[in-house]
Amino acid sequence: MNEDMDQVFKALSDATRRLLLDRLREDNGQSLGRLCDGLGMSRQAATQHLGLLEAANLVSTVKRGREKLHYLNPVPIHEIQERWIGKFDRPRLEALGAVKRKAESAMDASPVTKPEFVYTTYIEATLERVWEALTDADITAGYWGHSNISDWQPGSPWEHRRTDGSGLADVVGTVVEAAPPNRLVVTWAGPDDERPEGPSTVTFDLKPYGGTVQLTVTHENLRDEAERRLAAGGWSAVLANLKTYLETGGLLPLPAWS
Prior knowledge:
Blueprint: H1 2-12, H2 15-26, H3 32-36, H4 43-55, E1 59-64, E2 67-72, H5 75-84, H6 90-105, E3 117-123, H7 127-135, H8 137-144, E4 146-149, E5 157-162, E6 169-179, E7 183-188, E8 200-209, E9 212-220, H9 225-248
Antiparallel strand pairs: 1-2, 3-9, 4-5, 5-6, 6-7, 7-8, 8-9
Family: Belongs to the AHA1 family.
Pfam family, one: AHSA1
Protein name: HTH arsR-type domain-containing protein
């Protein structure tokens, strides 16, 4: 954890990298060309800065056609906040944040559909092992607290079923795309969740990266900022437990979602 935090502080220590994060905060999901526009920076220099931000997990990338889009990942900064902001300070700061978000919500949103939450982690395992850990009912029951159940064929239903013996599912959906061991796309909604805008979509992208597996989770079509914050907290906890399980065989002592 300390080593990860050191990378975050190193990445944030440079004014240019902070500027790149600011630009992504203002307009998330930009190509390299758009990020360089108006900065007087070469593509090579921007690529080096973005590489450090990605290594610190502050930026994630998702391919859209021929383009690679860059997304701000606020989770590491949130973890710094959680470490040093006390419980008595948090209500006051959250109230100030609520005022800020309310002011920003008046701004027109971009009409382009973009991933609303993107998280990337690196796991010391094989592609096949990570894929199995995402799709095997018994393994997901161990580190996630729910069994992911499906035949994982495109068009098939899937369930995120409780392990308490009730047979109830907290999340249901459809397998949109399955290309083991590299890509899985599913719809995601509560069993009684009426969503005029349709269910959200979760994409798992897996690829080899320097002896590890780079796993990127993209959660799209979330209702609002509150649902995005819930997704951010849930996914960071689940993926931390997944990484711990695959690399050590153990689990975190207290999953954040409990």
